[in-house]
Amino acid sequence: xxxxxxxxxxxxxxxxxxxxxxxxxxxxxxxxDFVDYPVNRAKTFLGETKAKDLEILLSQGWxxxxxxxxxxxxxxxxxGKFARTxxxxxxxxxxxxxxxxxxxxxxxxxxxxxxxxxxxxxxxCFGVHPLSVKPSFEALDANKDGLISKEEFIDAALxxxxxxxxxxxxxxxxxxxx
Length: 178
What we know:
mainly alpha; Recoverin, domain 1; two-stranded antiparallel ribbon; 4 strands; globular
C-alpha cells in the first residue's frame, strides 16, 4: 500500500532548508556544506566557544537528520529522514533536543533569551542575509517583547520541521527560498 505524499507546505520548507545548506549548489548537501561552512563563519560571528557548540550541534544534526554515515545527502534522502515526523512517535522528542542544543548556540551571552543581534549573527553563519533576519525574528517572538525565549525558539523550530501548514516557525531559517 502506497503512503500519501508529504504535505506541500512542509516540502516547501524542507526544500528551502536544503537550498540554504547546499552551499555550492551542486544538488547535494555535503558534510562540508552543512558543518564546516557555518562553523568557520561562526568563528567570526560568534567566537570560538560558540563555534565549538555549533560544531557539536551540526555534527549531531548531520548524523541524525541529514547524511548519517554518508558524506553527502540528496533532497530525497533528507525528506526521508525528516518524514519520520509522520511515522515515529519519538521523533518530536529528538527534534526538541536538537532545538534545545541550537538555542544554546544561538544564545551568545547565555542569558536564556535571544536578541535580534544574536539571531542575526547566528543566521549569518548559515548565509542568511542580515536584512532578512528581522522579519523572521519578529515572527518567532510570539509575545512581542523584543526577545525570543527558549520556549518560543523551540516552538518555532518544531513548527519549521514538523508543522504541515503555514506558521510563524516557517521563518525560522529566514525567508523561504524555494
